[in-house]
Amino acid sequence: MFTEIFVVEGMHDKQKLESVYPGIECIVTNGSEIAEGTIALIKSASKRRGVILFLDPDHPGRMITDRILLEVPNAKIAFLPRKAAISENGRKVGVEHASPIAIDSALRGVYTIGGTFPGAVTGADLYARGLSGSIDASKRRESVSERLGLPPSNAKTLLKWMNMLGIPAERLDG
User: Fold this and answer.
1) Does residue 109 sit in the same domain as residue 119?
2) Which own/partner contact pairs does 142-146 have at CB distance under 8 Å and 24+ positions apart?
3) How large is the average pLDDT for residues 39-54?
């Protein structure tokens, strides 16, 4: 199934993944204060088997993703839509609250980080599609982000994600 090792935030996330994919292997960051030893373990795993970041779709999850990508630029990323990761009481957000179907869907859309590529997305591409500079740009970006399996973003961050993940501008049109 997966040869890579998954990086998750907490033990409950790990347990949830193991319930969906028995035998899956995970490294737990224990939240946003990632120990240097954990970073070293993620680096080592990325060199041997590869790693997939599967972190909560919230601000701390994005901060952890950014921190790990600084140290492990070859990491792959799977994004879980925020609305698929909300607890039953509506108070918490996390991988542990997602359904097996939502998890499976997110893991079928794993992105690989890449360098610059021909046809990189520009600010003009976003503007031409009403994803920036228009009254409903935020709603349009949210829709595009959800369709592409990316976290909700402002225009600048959407541009960053698309170019970092090698997603061409044509995919904005869906």
Assistant:
1) no
2) 144/172, 144/174, 146/81
3) 93
Q: What is the 3-state secondary structure (H, E, C) of 124-162?
A: HHHHHCCCCCCCCHHHHHHHHHHHHCCCCCCHHHHHHHH
For position 73, which CATH number holds? Answer: 3.40.1360.10
- pLDDT confidence tier of residue 62, bands split at 50, 70 and 90: confident
Please state the pTM of the whole predicted model.
0.76
**54-68, 125-139, 147-161: lowest mean pLDDT where?**
147-161
| DSSP collapsed to 3 states, the chain | CCCCEEEECCHHHHHHHHHHCCCCCEEECCCCCCCHHHHHHHHHHHHHCCEEECCCCCHHHHHHHHHHHHHCCCCEECCCCHHHCECCCCCCECHHHCCHHHHHHHHCCCEECCCCCCCCCCHHHHHHCCCCCCCCHHHHHHHHHHHHCCCCCCHHHHHHHHHHCCCCHHHHCC
> Given this model, what pLDDT does residue 112 score?
78
> Are 10 and 69 part of one and the same domain?
yes
